[in-house]
Amino acid sequence: MTKLSVNINKIATLRNSRGGNVPNLLKVAADIEEFGANGITIHPRPDERHIRYQDARDLKLTVKTEFNIEGNPVKSFMDLVLEVRPTQVTLVPDAINAITSNAGWDTIKHQAFLKEVIAEFQKNGIRTSIFIDTDAKLIEAAAQTGADRIELYTEYFASEFDKGNKNAIKPYTDAAILAHKLGLGINAGHDLSLDNIKFFKENIPNLAEVSIGHALITESLYLGLENVVNMYLHRLK
User: Could you list the active site residues?
Assistant: First the structure.
């Protein structure tokens, strides 16, 4: 079964909008695990507009499933990850002012940098994943960095699926087949939802993990967090 890691950035956004500690991020993360999710994901950004660096430290003490920290490996992020030592770090080439992730790595142009960063994380026992588009050359270059996994950037698939274009899955299927041949584990994330996750899962061989936040939290406003977590788990079986 593909693992479900729930991104809780939106919970932090809600908390920060009023100050204080409501909703309690640690309690929500614990509840999500209790509901059956296989992991917790956070994506702290340098301005700490949702997840704060201290949240990563606090969650490390409470998360009982897999803990995944996403972000651009600037020095402050690297220092945080090396301090916290989560199960997995997902490297994302975010611009500082990006609202959300909007591109994967150019693993050819940045290969030397990625090799250095990945070696440092792996030396400290942290599994590494590279956020990436479906281009075969980029996936081949990702394998050369020494990364453990890639995370397929699924915005294009989700957008096209909403329009009824199911053929948009093909580059992701091909990318997953290639990645597996190259010895890379396969994660995926961005705009995956209850509407498209079952189709995506059925067409992506060897899919290890999906990371879902915005859609899952939004759907939970209508259906309830426990129900939605279990609906995703059912579709991922």
Answer: 43, 70, 190
